[in-house]
Amino acid sequence: MSIFLNENSKVIVQGITGGEGTKHSTKMLAAGTNIVGGVNARKAGTTVEIGGKKLPVFATVEEAMKETGADVSVAFVPPKFTKDAVIEAIDAEIPLLVIITEGVPVHDSAYFWAHAVAKGNKTRIIGPNCPGIISPGKSNAGIIPADIAGAGKIGLVSKSGTLTYQMMYELREIGFSTAIGIGGDPVIGTTHIDALEAFEADPETAAIVMIGEIGGDAEERAAAYIKEHVTKPVVGYVAGFTAPEGKTMGHAGAIVSGSAGTAQAKKEALEAAGVKVGKTPSETADLMREIVAGL
Question: How many domains does the structure of the chain reveal?
Answer without folding.
Answer: 2
